[in-house]
Design brief:
Layout lengths: L3 H8 L3 H8 L9 H13 L13 H4 L4 E5 L3 H6 L1 H16 L6 E4 L14 E5 L2 E2 L5 H4 L3 E5 L9 E5 L1 H14 L5 E5 L2 E5 L5 E4 L2 H12 L8 E3 L5 H13 L6 E4 L2 H13 L9 E6 L12 E5 L1 H16 L7 E4 L1 E4 L7 H4 L2
Parallel strand pairs: 1-2, 1-3, 3-5, 4-8, 5-6, 6-14, 7-10, 7-11, 11-12, 12-13
Antiparallel strand pairs: 8-9, 13-15
Helix pairs in contact: 1-2, 1-3, 6-12, 8-9, 10-11
Length: 347
């Protein structure tokens, strides 16, 4: 069955561009030739969008002007599919309701609050902070945050408990005999809407790692490697740094699968075997994780479902629900071949 990624490859465009073309996103700025090419490839591959639901209360939503704010650029979406998957989930579920996004705003463009004018509802993807008293923000009737919960008594939100997910990964490693465990991650920022301003936040994965390892008496500050972001390049550079320290842990928790890809490369270049010498657990379970060599053990984050859940929360609010809801989407440990039982491996 053809996927959006297949269409993107054959059309020589990004997956986000394919998604927006197929969903008739009027705010997308591409040539008519590109739109035509994407649609022709999709037709050739017999790709079909999910069928729209028959929704009894569709008329309640059809006149709504729905805005989508996402913190990152399309380039970042392609490098780290986590946010792309959330956005696609939003688009897919809106399509089920016979709806589409009226306006896409990316924090990276530093749009002013005036860009919110005329919107009835808003879905915000990523850690973006707002001036809640700004008149353009106040006039929006319904707002759902995804991947961030600024005030769960006021706003609906969809999040992941990354601390709990990290405990799952660490349980798995300790059960397999690992006591020397490192952490590779990036820096989390809370971005201020409408400006370049932002503040560093404690990554919940790192917080969970520190808390868990301290509780076991196993925490080692020297085994923490934190970069500016969660990209493949940063994962590569941080693992190179860990290798150069000549005191390599027997296992690593890596805060994103793209970072794990870079870490794999660094270990391969150093002639260090995965999992025989170093076990790896990633985060996200992106498509390529199962095809890595060896296939990556990772925490599956249901990012696409997070986007869909945001639309359903919006629908509930528009149809009369008064109490704000905070939905915590569960995660799942996917065990593959990048982790090994240290006891059995040493026999």
């Amino acid at each position: 069955m053809a996927t959006i990624k297949d269409i993107a490859k054959l059309s020589n465009v990004s997956t986000s561009t394919v998604s927006r073309v197929l969903n008739n996103d009027s705010s997308l700025s591409v040539t008519e030739e590109t739109r035509k090419k994407v649609n022709e490839v999709a037709e050739k591959l017999q790709y079909t969008l999910p069928q729209r639901k028959s929704v009894k209360k569709q008329h309640e939503l059809k006149d709504m002007k729905i805005g989508l704010i996402i913190y990152c650029s399309e380039k970042v979406e392609d490098e780290d599919p986590y946010f792309l998957s959330i956005r696609q989930g939003v688009e897919q579920e809106l399509y089920h309701y016979g709806l589409e996004i009226s306006k896409v705003i990316r924090w990276i463009n530093y749009d002013s609050y005036e860009s919110l004018n005329g919107l009835d509802s808003l879905i915000v993807i990523g850690k973006i902070d707002f001036d809640f008293l700004n008149p353009f923000f106040v006039q929006i009737q319904n707002i759902v945050f995804v991947d961030y919960s600024p005030n769960d008594e006021v706003f609906d939100s969809v999040i992941v408990d990354f601390e709990k997910a990290t405990y799952k990964a660490l349980d798995h490693l300790l059960e397999n005999g690992h006591a020397s465990i490192g952490f590779i991650g990036g820096t989390v920022f809370l971005h201020q809407f409408g400006s370049k301003a932002g503040s560093k936040q404690m990554d919940k994965r790192l917080k969970g790692f520190r808390k868990y390892m301290e509780s076991k008496g196993l925490f080692n500050e020297d085994h923490l490697y934190i970069g500016d972001n969660f990209t493949t390049q940063t994962g590569y550079e941080l693992m190179k740094k860990a290798i150069s320290n000549n005191c390599l842990p027997t296992a690593f928790i890596i805060a994103s699968d793209p970072m794990a890809i870079g870490a794999y490369r660094a270990l391969e270049e150093a002639g260090i075997s995965i999992p025989n010498e170093v076990s790896i657990v990633g985060f996200d379970d992106i498509t390529i994780a199962q095809y890595m060599t060896p296939p990556l053990t990772t925490i599956k984050v249901y990012s696409n479902e997070m986007g869909k859940a945001a639309v359903r929360l919006l629908d509930e609010k528009l149809n009369g629900r008064e109490v704000s809801m905070k939905l915590v989407v569960p995660t799942k440990l996917i065990i593959r071949q990048s982790t090994v039982n240290k006891f059995e491996n040493n026999r």
